[in-house]
Amino acid sequence: MELHFIRELAQKIKGNVEKVVIGKEEQLDLLLVALISSGHVLLEDVPGTGKTLLAKSLAKSLDCTFKRIQFTPDLLPSDVTGIHFYNQKEGEFECRLGPIFANIVLADEINRATPRTQSSLLEVMEERQATIDGETYPLERPFMVLATQNPVESQGTFPLPEAQLDRFLIKVNLGYPTKEEGIDILRRFKENDPLEDLQPVASQEDIRRAGQFYSQVYMSDEILHYIMAIVEKTRERSDIELGISPRGSQALLKAVQVYAILKGRDFVSPDDVKALVKPVFGHRLLLSSLIPVKKDQIHAILDAVLDEVMVPSEDDFVKGL
Fold first, then answer.
1. Which of 17, 109, 204, 218: disulfide with 267, CB 3.0–4.6 Å?
2. What is the pLDDT of residues 277-312, one digit of tens each?
3. Inter-residue contact 130 to 81 (CB < 8 Å)
4. In 187-208, which positions are buried (b, 16+ CB within 10 angstroms) versus exposed (e)?
5. HEC letters along 227-277
6. Nearest-angstrom CA–CA distance, 101 and 146
7. pLDDT for 293
8. Confidence band of 160 (pLDDT split at 50, 70, 90)
9. What was the pLDDT predicted at 125?
10. What is the per-residue burial (b if ≥16 Cβ within 10 Å, else e) of 151-174?
11. In DSSP terms, which residues pair with 242 in a beta bridge?
12. pTM recorded for the entire structure
């Protein structure tokens, strides 16, 4: 029953977002995977492809607090987490919590902030808490960071370090719409902005409940072995300098469980693993400096890794159901 509730909840949120966003069904599934499994998402693509619109549409579909932080080179860590200030009227120090204290946080153009400011997100993304002047403040669940960045323009940007990238459960690329989708977009936005009329369809409690029960999805030992075989291959290849960490393998474990629910199943299949290897592992790999960097090279390497690993048979991965 709980898995049925999670799937209905996801379909309800997805249908609501699609009132605004056109033609991004696969990407929206990935956002829902992250939302339900308490993960964070890095939205990467060229300007104007709908990264911020997608993030705002998801946030408005949830009856949760939402904050947007515009990352710039002059942004300070205290602008993100908060500060203690002296209240002259009360005669004592008070804490003013920053915009990170929200259920859904849009970190717009995250790579425009300095490494010092980027590092202010490390604790909040991993431990769901922020330390301000030595005092620790927990964040309310659900908590999700949706960060955007432009992969083309490098002037005035600071590449995210591997430790920061590893905090993101999934990396999503939107891409350009098709011609037909482009016409639908023009038609939909011709007279007004549908985002303004979007109403919440899910509560905080709905998201928390989904996050508690998605792990009920059945996962055989054969699927666990399959995931680890893929992980180990990334650590053995000469063209990969930094393979997948234990955090990365756990991220894939959580993601495929939710993905299976969205596809209408109560068990994880190898196809679920294959579908999420690139979104979950792609941004975590560091290629060898001896290998010339080409477009989509990481995806090509992951395709090669999947080809090298034996896929469990159906009798194996449904064993125990």
1. 218
2. 999 999 998 887 766 666 678 888 999 999 999 888
3. yes
4. eeeeeeeeeeebeebbebebbe
5. HHHHHHHHHHCCCEEECCCHHHHHHHHHHHHHHHHHCCCCECCHHHHHHHH
6. 14
7. 63
8. confident
9. 92
10. eeeeeebbebeeebbbbbbbbbbb
11. 286
12. 0.91
**Which pair of tokens denotes residue 41?**
């998402």
Domains of the chain: 2-212 (3.40.50.300), 217-317 (1.10.8.80)
From the CA atom positions of the chain, what is the Rg in Å?
20
